[in-house]
Specification:
By secondary structure, this protein is mostly helical. It has helices at about 1-5, 20-30, 40-65, 105-130, 145-160, 165-170, 175, 185, 190-205, 210-225, 230-250, 255-270, and strands spanning about 5-10, 15-20. It is elongated, with a radius of gyration of 33 Å.
Length: about 280
Amino acid sequence: MAAAVGLDQDVRSGVPVTRAHLSAAAALSWDPVHHCSDTPTQKQNEISTERFQDYTWIYSRIEAARCPDVVVAQIDPKKLRKKQTVNIAISGCQPAPEGYSPTLKWQQQQVANFSSVRQSLNKHRNHWRSQDLDSNVNMPKLEDEEGWKKFCLGERVYSEIDAESDHENLGIDYIKVGFPPLLSIVSRMNQATVTSVLEYLISWFGEKKFTPELGRWFYALLACLEKPLLPEAHSLIRQLARRCSEVRVLEENKNEEQVSALNLLICLVSRYFDQRDLADEPS
């Protein structure tokens, strides 16, 4: 019979409490204050407190009984992003093509050069930060992803315009060719900006080909990253190294200059920033 009405167990006293009991308790509307005299004795206080705790427990069970066993969230598909990216971590970088793996001596030399660049940048950062920028240099806002891509890569690369067709008219039009990572520019970038721009350019690189403009900015942004790395920066540079190794393998006509640039970025991530599992094995 107890099972027919729904049997719960009082975990404190072991006394079974049926749903019928819960319904009856709900109708009592007991008020512990109303049932106390104006000058309650200690015994009355103890009884009132005990009864109040009992009824509080019963009411909590009533509320719990009203809750459904399963709740399904109502999700509006329109609010979901149409394009979602899922990054799947893989171990290590793809090996360099045969004959293009850098020597250990070359890698060590690049790390030493890079370390000198970082020291010089830190030493003269305040000086370059105080220098006025040219009137045509308008650094985008932090959250302006497309603006930073155009700023760093130029409209020609951003819009994938043939370089040869526009070569005679480029000159030093930085709007078209992109602003190089001048010290007066990168010295003004705090760590949040450095990380964000690095993320924007890596995202671009994930779908586009490698260019000299991209390589220069990657090198400069890595030089600006402070150690120890924040988790986000740590993830980004590993993603960069892996992408470089992929492009290096997929390069059909091996361009030595481009392969060397990709080797350099992998070398800096793996050996300067201590991501040794991504390092190229010396040839």
